Amino acid sequence: MHADTEQYHAAQSPEDRRICTLLADAIECALPEAENKVWHAHPVWFIEGNPIVGYSKLKNCVRLLFWSGQSFATPGLTPEGKFKAAEARYTSAEQVDTAVLSRWLAESRDLQWDYRNLVRRKGRLEPLTSNTR
């Protein structure tokens, strides 16, 4: 895990730090090939330069965001924004269903939309994988 991500965790309240650490450990385990860095002030993991998953502290929760989450078959994520992102929100570490999280993380590798080239394509999002819905 990147040192900036560890600093991000250290700045959180004890309960939010527990959530962030649980999420980071699961992400690191499931996506060992992903590059982690703090991007736009939040921990994000990238595969080949494409943002896959990250989380951020909101006012009342920690939000887990999958950039291609609307394409996942596993239920439990809520659509976020105007593209293909979807989120889950947590106020305690006990709310994180690690079995479901593992399925989302597996899907995040296989179902990707090309966010890396979104600006170059003037806001047009294209699939990176053939099985993206």
Description:
There is one protein chain. With 133 residues, this protein is of the alpha+beta class. It is globular. It has a 6-stranded antiparallel sheet with strand order 1-2-3-4-6-5, covered by helices on one side. The model has no long low-confidence stretch (mean pLDDT 90). The chain has helices at residues 3-10, 14-30, 98-110; strands at residues 35-39, 42-47, 50-57, 62-66, 78-79, 86-90. The protein has a single domain (3-110), classed as Aspartate Aminotransferase, domain 1. It is 29% helix and 23% strand.
Could you give a short description of this structure?
With 133 residues, the protein is α+β, with helices and mostly antiparallel strands. The chain is built from 3 helices and 6 strands, in the order H-H-E-E-E-E-E-E-H.
Q: How are the elements arranged and paired?
A:
Layout: H1 3-10, H2 14-30, E1 35-39, E2 42-47, E3 50-57, E4 62-66, E5 78-79, E6 86-90, H3 98-110
Q: Please, how many domains? A: 1
- Could you say what the CATH architecture is? Alpha-Beta Complex
Q: Kindly state the number of beta strands.
A: 6
- SS strand fraction: 15-25%
Number of helices, counting only DSSP H or I runs of 4 residues or more:
3
Stated plainly, the CATH topology is called Aspartate Aminotransferase, domain 1
In helices, the fraction of residues equals: 25-40%
Query: What oligomeric state do the depicted chains represent?
Result: single chain
- Which class do the helix and strand fractions yield? alpha+beta
CATH class: Alpha Beta
Global morphology: globular
- The SSE order reads HHEEEEEEH
Strand order of the largest sheet: 1-2-3-4-6-5
Average per-residue pLDDT, rounded, comes to 90
Taking the alpha carbons of the first and last residues, their distance comes to: 30 Å
